[in-house]
Amino acid sequence: MKKLISIFLFLFMIIPISRAQVQVPQASPHASLEQMVGLSEVEIEYSRPSMRDRKIFGELVPYNQLWRTGANENTKITFSDDVMIAGKLLKKGTYAIFTNPGKESWKIYFYNDTTNWGLPQKWDDGKIALEAKAKVNILPNRTESFTIMIDNLTNSSATLNFSWENTTASLEFEVSTQEKAMESIKTTLKGEPKWSDYYAAADYYFSEKKDLKQALTWITKSVEMKKDAPYYVTRKKALIEYELGMRDAAVKTAKKSLEAAKKANNEDYVKMNEASLKEWGAM
Q: What is the pLDDT of residue 70?
């Protein structure tokens, strides 16, 4: 009996040890980012090696040679919609990113095979979905850890930046926001739109400098549907009216927005309305 108890205690002690795993920091930790560009979602997964007192470009990462663009598994990018890069169409989907860094520009490859650890053992030009050239900028301050960012956001474009050491390579891409936005407006306003739908449609038309008369019709409908319309709605209506040459109406609407902003204690909109009223000669 004592022997059985001893065996049981021994097993009890070793089982947790056998299941334990060593946990230490990764030399190139995993990173991910998600970014909406217009109405399209872009996701990136990659690993971030650090300089650690090493010379990067021209030594650790040789010039004019294929680079894995990060560390460990493939750096991957996913586009929820088709995009345009350097005037070429890249279909929606997930791609590995490989690069060929040069002193003045980088070649960027969007590669169909994302299953590699580092570079493919056998490079296949047939798997290149798109190749583009990225402009290189020299930074005044160094970037210690390799960083990928999506910057310079507009409704229809953004810039993909690869930064490390004192170098940033930038590649612009475009998304089909207008087509999706127009279809959404058409579909929603044919149904049972809310005041906020009319506001969103008018706001988009105003920001994209489309048919301002149509934008005014929609923003007016929004104000009519929403009792005590929010200051940001009446502010937008005032701006549209002014752009259409309706100064007196714009002044009247801006004063309503100003009053509502004061009640809501929103200093930003108070200042914006006061600035517009001064510009329009009404204060």
A: 96
CA-CA distances (angstroms) from residue 127 to 70, 130, 172, 238, 256?
20, 9, 22, 53, 59
Dihedral of CA atoms 252, 254, 255, 256 in degrees, nearest 10, equals 90
Q: What percent of the chain has pLDDT over 90?
A: 90
The backbone torsions φ and ψ at residue 4, rounded to the nearest 5 degrees and listed phi first, read -65, -40
* Single-letter residue type at 10: F
pLDDT tens, position by position, 231-255: 999 999 999 999 999 999 999 999 9
Mean predicted confidence (pLDDT) in 85-94: 97
Residue 5 has pLDDT above 60, yes or no: no
Residue 2 pLDDT grade (very low, low, confident, very high; cuts 50, 70, 90): low
Q: Is 89 exposed, middle or buried (0-12, 13-18, 19+ CB in 10 A)?
A: exposed
Degrees (nearest 5) of the Cα angle 31, 58, 72? 30
> How many other CB atoms sit within 10 Å of the CB of residue 245?
9
pTM for the full model?
0.82
- Residue 237's nearest CA partner among 266, 217, 211 is 217
pLDDT of residue 21: 85
* Interatomic CA distance for residues 203 and 206, integer angstroms: 5
Report the alpha-carbon distance of residue 161 to residue 174 in Å, rounded.
14
User: Is residue 211 a contact partner of residue 205, using CB atoms and an 8 Å limit?
Assistant: yes
Q: Average pLDDT, stretch 83-100?
A: 97
CA angle at 96 for the pair 94 and 99, rounded to the nearest 5°: 140
Residue 164 near residue 156 (C-beta atoms within 8 A)? no
Distance of CA 191 to the CA centre of its chain: 30
Q: How far apart are CA 115 and CA 136, in angstroms?
A: 28
The answer to whether the beta carbons of residues 158 and 172 sit under 8 Å apart is yes
End-to-end CA distance of the chain: 98
